[in-house]
């Protein structure tokens, strides 16, 4: 079912029905004859609340829903940065929270108790950030709405362009973008007044992106790209109609709005951007960062604990360099191994982008042969490999986009190849295990196959579950041992170096946002520790600057999964099964780490 843009955010019949349900407290245990009916009523109320929550979130932030593989809202852009929309959304969450607490948990089945737990988590998580004005920072170089829509223009991303209806959906979003841009400018002006602005280095990184979105003619604009790729199967009438509509939208709406945005950033926002780099420099920034840590990791750790954990992990991983260096032909000081590998041309054998993609396909073939020995659950959705679009290639990191639940597009691993001749082989295996299979693709693919409410099924890209999503993907990298892929010293170095990156993230993220580190300090630490060029380290550090605490989720989540695997192996002895452990971890979809731990503990107890 497709929802019309004219449908109000909070005005669906189902939503109003939910919000007028009577609120009743827990009552005495029902008589045996009424117990089944009471249980059914409790389940019905829960499912209505879950549907209402998902519909509200989908209308509020439909781009997130598209990224999660649900195409039903692809005609909507949403206005999550609007203060009025935010106020309505948080008010709704509080009403849903009250309704949820009134449902008698004891009357729910075990499966619905998990739904209850996860819906409560989502509502609590959303409300925990209510007092922090993230809408006043609507743009950054790493993640922004105009850039996301520009990437969708190719039709190869999360929003496919294969049918007339899909072309109309995308055009609808383009028609809403000028209003979004004007709201973003208004928000940034308010942010300037309140001292809530991006660091100057981030604004400098943003400027070229938004300048690139401008064009001399509508036909030269990136948002006109779909018309250049019109499917031959479209009728001539549809081709003519869509071409005229896209040209008008770009010429009369988008181009002026993009011009306003680029000029505002250059003339007003850049001079007002701050000299500081970390989140703690913002008003109430320390509390804001702590709230983001809890939201991104789902655990209660403070910045200093995380910083020390990062230093400990860096030291542990660096101890491996002494053993691995000679196998790669290195005889220098162990700490210098990453820098040495980075400088060696012998690890960079590619001449074309096609050769890079072919190498990834060979890795995929090796992995597929051994998957059945390690996994009892395999996703049905296919996985494709594609190159990152040119618009964002200079600032992007390799990533994965989930398959659509309706099968309209597969899961995609996006490889960022700026210069194939400078592309190192060493990190390819561990990267593919993380972004492809059995990492993100297994989690996201299996999630689409579960019979669970939509708020759980389409929940792979939300930052508040990153500790599971990214933790699982980083854990998947460690399975290179079981796949036999790390017998190759090059591949094992790549794994350790990527693991070192995640440990460094704990150090630099907390360093910048809680301990007063400058951007330059963080770049120097990352460059020295990881052997990265200054440009590559800068790319990483500037990502953490605009996405605080997200980078913490990888290592914290992976360490928890490894801890739970060892706990189960020790407790279960001969009864331990690695495929069954993997089924327990990802078989129920995305879970906050405390709920994942409880699930594994129940499995251990049942085996005893």
Automatic annotation (TrEMBL):
Question: Which controlled-vocabulary keywords does the entry list?
Answer: Signal
The record's annotation in InterPro entries points to: DUF885 (IPR010281)
Signal sequence coordinates:
1-28
Name used for this protein in its record: DUF885 domain-containing protein
């Amino acid at each position: 079912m497709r929802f019309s843009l004219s449908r109000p955010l909070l005005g669906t019949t189902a939503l109003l029905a939910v919000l007028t349900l009577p609120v009743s407290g827990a009552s005495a245990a029902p008589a045996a004859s009424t117990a089944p009916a009471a249980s059914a009523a409790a389940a019905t109320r829960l499912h209505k609340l879950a549907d209402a929550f998902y519909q509200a979130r989908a209308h509020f932030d439909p781009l997130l829903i598209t990224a999660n593989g649900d195409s039903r809202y692809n005609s909507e852009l949403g206005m999550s940065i609007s203060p009025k929309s935010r106020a309505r959304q948080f008010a709704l969450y509080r009403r849903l929270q009250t309704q949820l607490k009134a449902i008698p948990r004891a009357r729910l089945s075990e499966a619905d108790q998990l739904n209850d737990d996860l819906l409560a988590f989502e509502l609590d998580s959303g409300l925990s950030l209510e007092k922090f004005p993230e809408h006043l920072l609507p743009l950054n170089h790493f993640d922004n709405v105009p850039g996301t829509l520009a990437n969708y223009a190719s039709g190869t991303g999360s929003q496919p362009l294969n049918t007339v209806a899909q072309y109309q959906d995308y055009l609808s979003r383009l028609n809403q973008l000028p209003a979004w841009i004007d709201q973003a400018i208004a928000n940034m002006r308010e942010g300037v007044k309140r001292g809530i602005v991006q660091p100057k280095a981030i604004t400098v990184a943003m400027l070229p992106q938004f300048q690139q979105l401008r064009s001399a003619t509508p036909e030269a604009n990136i948002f006109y790209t779909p018309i250049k790729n019109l499917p031959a199967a479209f009728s001539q009438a549809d081709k003519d109609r869509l071409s005229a509509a896209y040209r008008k939208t770009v010429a009369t709406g988008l181009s002026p709005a993009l011009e306003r945005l680029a000029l505002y950033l250059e003339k007003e926002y850049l001079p007002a951007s701050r000299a500081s780099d970390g989140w703690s420099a913002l008003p109430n920034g320390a509390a804001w960062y702590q709230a983001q840590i809890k939201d991104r990791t789902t655990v209660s750790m403070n910045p200093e604990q995380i910083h020390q954990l990062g230093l400990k992990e860096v030291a542990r991983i660096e101890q491996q360099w002494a053993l691995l260096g000679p196998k790669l032909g290195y005889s220098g000081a162990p700490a210098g191994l990453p820098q040495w590998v980075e400088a060696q041309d012998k690890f960079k054998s590619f001449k074309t982008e096609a050769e890079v993609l072919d190498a990834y396909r060979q890795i995929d073939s090796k992995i597929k042969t051994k998957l059945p020995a390690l996994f009892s659950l395999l996703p049905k959705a296919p996985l494709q490999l594609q190159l990152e679009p040119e618009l964002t290639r200079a600032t992007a990191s390799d990533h994965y986009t989930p398959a659509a639940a309706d099968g309209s597009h597969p899961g995609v691993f996006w490889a960022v190849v700026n210069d194939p001749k400078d592309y190192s082989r060493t990190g390819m295996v561990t990267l593919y295990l993380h972004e492809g299979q059995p990492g993100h693709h297994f989690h996201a693919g299996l999630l689409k196959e579960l019979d669970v409410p939509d708020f759980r099924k389409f929940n792979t890209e939300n930052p508040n579950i990153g500790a599971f999503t990214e933790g699982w993907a980083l854990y998947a990298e460690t399975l290179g041992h079981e796949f036999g892929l790390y017998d190759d010293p090059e591949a094992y170095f790549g794994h350790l170096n990527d693991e070192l990156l995640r440990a460094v993230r704990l150090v630099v993220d907390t360093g910048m946002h809680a301990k007063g580190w400058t951007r330059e300090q963080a770049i120097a630490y990352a460059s020295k520790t990881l052997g990265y060029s200054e440009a590559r380290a800068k790319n990483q550090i500037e990502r953490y600057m605009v996405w605080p605490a997200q980078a913490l989720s990888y290592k914290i989540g992976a360490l928890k999964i490894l801890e739970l695997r060892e706990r189960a192996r020790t407790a279960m002895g001969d009864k331990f099964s690695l495929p069954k452990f993997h089924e327990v971890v990802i078989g129920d979809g995305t879970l906050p780490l405390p709920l994942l731990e409880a699930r594994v503990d129940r499995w251990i107890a049942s085996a005893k």
